[in-house]
Amino acid sequence: MSPDIFGRPETPPSRNAPSLPPATPPVQPWVLEGKPERRPIPAVPPETAGPLAEEAGGGGESAPPSRRRGRRVLTVTLAVALILFLGYLVPAILMSGKVLPGTTVSGVDIGGLTVTEAAERLRARLDERARKPIVVQAMGIRQQVYPEDAGLSLDVVGTIEQAPSGFPNPIQVVRALIGEIEIQPEIDVQTSKLTAAVQRLAQRIDRPVREGEIRFKGLTPQVVTPRDGRRVEVGAAVAAIRDAYFTTTEPVTLPVTVVKPTVGVKKFTEARIVARRAVSAPFTLVAGFRRAELSRQVLAANLTFVPAPDGEIVPRFNAKGALAAVEKQLVDPAEAPVDPTYDIVNGEPKIVPGRPGRGVDAEKLADAITKAIREGGSRTIEVTLTTVKPRLSENELRSLGIREKISEFTTSHPCCQPRVTNIHRIADILDGYIVKPGEVFSLNGIVGPRDRARGFVEAPQIVAGRLVNDVGGGISQFVTTMYNAVFFGGLKDVKHTPHEFYISRYPAGRESTVSYPEPDFKWQNDSPYGVLVKAYYTDTSITVQFWSTKRYDKVEARATKPHSFTDFPVETDSGPDCIPMAGRKGFTIEVTRVFYRNGTEVKRDPPIRTVYRPETRLTCVDESSGSAGAEDSADSSDSEVSSRPSRR
Predict the structure, then answer these.
(1) For the chain, is the Cβ count within 10 Å smaller at the N or the C terminus?
(2) Closest to 636 (Cα-Cα) out of 456, 476, 433, 455
(3) Is 436 helix (H, G, I), strand (E, B) or coil?
(4) How far apart, in Å, are the Cα atoms of 644 and each of 373, 463, 576?
């Protein structure tokens, strides 16, 4: 039997201990049926009796106090959580599906609206602002950029997409209830259109750097002062305008870079000594047994001094321009190249074939002249003859679109005067000339100086307010006729110089003079088609026609009435070269060119203002007899007037 059934621990028996009888077990009380078992209550320390007694609840049947306090805290926590949850849930449900209250875009409140309603409100409230022009400025120039022209617009859809409009989270609800939500407008930018707009702005702001150079006025070298250029930084300007759109009403300052010339004015001033020496004597050109003199005047008219990449001032010679005056003396005209052109047959242009020929190598001549100027030495130059192609081929000619007459103008003159010979001579030189698209026509560059070797004769022209005889006098009548063909052909006037005095046979404000080397008469073929010059003359008239493809139905001249009249002075002269002058008042007039297409005005040029000086009434007195040569008095309208710049 196991010892532990008697309530004693099992002890291993000692080998030497004697065997004892088992102990008697304690008496177990009998549990009376129906009565609770009583157990002794353990003693409680006095310091803990109070709390424990409270927790027992006076009888031992209630929960302890700590448990009741925990339940109370839990209940309060759950109640607060429920209140907070309902405080979030109720407004969240009300706000769901709409833009959160307090949401604004550039001051426009779109809170509480559906996405569609918000978009409609933004379009209604911000459309005018979105179209308002942006003011930009640079170098003292202010311009406006219209957003629609620059590819800038308010992206309403993109802006609304930034606004929270789904089921809001607690933070969004709190912000909506106690604060504001500012949404930045989303901008739609068409970069190519904005770049093009900036480039248009730059056309008014940009200024090319002007490199200095030395040009000749007559035989006197004059320095053209170098000048800084400026250039709008297009990329940075695009960014500046894009950032300013819809965010500010202040002018936007465009970034501009200053471009410095290669060489300062000091070096050009020093180089005038070399320039003066360069035209101190003519050059003699030799081709076999043929010789020609390149006069000082022709040399000066085609010579400039310009900066080289290394900063030195070097001569540059326009050999082609100079050869216009002398090439026929060096090359047999029968061997010269002939440009293809058109003749007008029964009102239709018909091709006249051209051919290559022999001519002076202009590049080698330019190199030889500039070398002689730099290094000095002999002024006799052996020119090189070479095969010269026509200015354009027949295939090129056919592609120029010369198919109809686009303008024509005629002026009249008295018969049989020396000046008429000069008018006919320059007409023969320029008849059939083709001006290619984009080319600038320069009368002096093509015709060169007028001299007797080419068939020009002396005729009166006005120099410094007096009539004098000079070779080539009278050709300003041809120039005036061509100027009007340019005017009514809708082509670009590059440079024309009105006569100093008004000449009655010309339309006031629409005439031009010319001399060699200055002033020149220049115009540009700014059309995509070629322009054929045709010249016809009689004993009393000269006509210039332009053939091309019409771009305008009509070009109209609108002139003001002459105004601001000034009286003419009266003088006498007894010199042997005196040519009497009739005298005429000076006045001012403005002429505007207006272009029409399909019967509608499409553009107009700025008015051209011409100020005519009064023409002196000059009486020539014969000192020997003391009488005036009234029978020899002349009207300057039969002569030419030397030039001065027109006032525009």
Answers:
(1) N
(2) 476
(3) coil
(4) 31, 10, 26
